[in-house]
Amino acid sequence: MSSTPTATPTTAPVPVPEEVGCLYDRLTALDTEAVGGSLHLGYWDVDDNDTPLVEAADRLTDMMTDRLRIDESHRVLDIGCGVGQPAMRISRRTGAHVTGIAISKDQIARASALAEGAGLSGRVEFRHADAMELPFPDNSFDAAIAIESIFHMPDRGRVLDEIRRVLRPGGRLVLTDFFERGPVPAEKQPAVDRLLRDFIMTLARPEDYVPLLRDAGLRFVELLDITEQSVRQTFEQMSQGSQEMQTVFDEEAEEKFSPASMIGVDEFGSVLLTAQKPL
Ligand SMILES: C[S@@+](CC[C@H](N)C(=O)[O-])C[C@H]1O[C@@H](n2cnc3c(N)ncnc32)[C@H](O)[C@@H]1O
Hints:
Layout: H1 17-29, H2 53-68, E1 75-79, H3 85-94, E2 97-102, H4 105-117, E3 124-128, E4 141-146, H5 156-166, E5 167-180, H6 189-198, H7 209-216, E6 219-225, H8 231-239, H9 244-253, E7 268-276
Parallel strand pairs: 1-2, 1-4, 2-3, 4-5
Antiparallel strand pairs: 5-7, 6-7
Helix pairs in contact: 1-4, 5-7
The structure holds S-adenosylmethionine.
């Protein structure tokens, strides 16, 4: 008699920030210029899946930026800033001053060099720091953004506490995160486990967000499940081999994680979350 594999909740080891830093130091040594410098998924409207990943990734940055409601008078914190492409784009589009932090020293060095080369040194700055202990005074930023970084951090609640502390009252936070949309069937679990292991991530659960925000003293504004517009289409594009980011994954993960293995894993989701520090 054969038995049907059943789903078990996904668990992954708690990320260690130093190990995440080393992972991104290694990725920084690869040529990520080809993917436009952003290290996040794209956003495609349902009928525009011909749009290249680089453009779709900028579109996600712009959607998030629009929710920050910022202008040239504002100071923005970018938590987990990568090599600075989103921070530079935010500053160019809005005129805001952006401070980016990342746990990878090599990313910070690359981001600083790119900003200087772009003539943006006065408007964007980058600093090596751990989001679990932000090196900034209370109420020092008007807005905060975290694009695909919180899933690398050991404690989402503590990061949100820190963000609330450094935001001024009324300041907005916009982030994207990966979450378990539903129980992952046993046959799909190995692909998810490989992704979480190779890229040192944990998955949230959909019911986590409201209590996490409440406990951190942040007001819930909006939660969008953007899986269909982001995760699904990014993995499809990367697995077609038409995207340069596939090369980045191949070189980093060798025989391990493959974007194609995530096609059809509809339980692996992405959310766009907006919150606000109460006035
Ligand atoms: C997937 S990349 C996203 C980079 C950037 N937001 C972008 O969209 O291009 C994740 C980022 O989170 C940063 N990160 C991970 N853990 C961190 C931590 N504990 N403190 C600060 N940054 C962290 C990494 O250094 C990396 O820059």
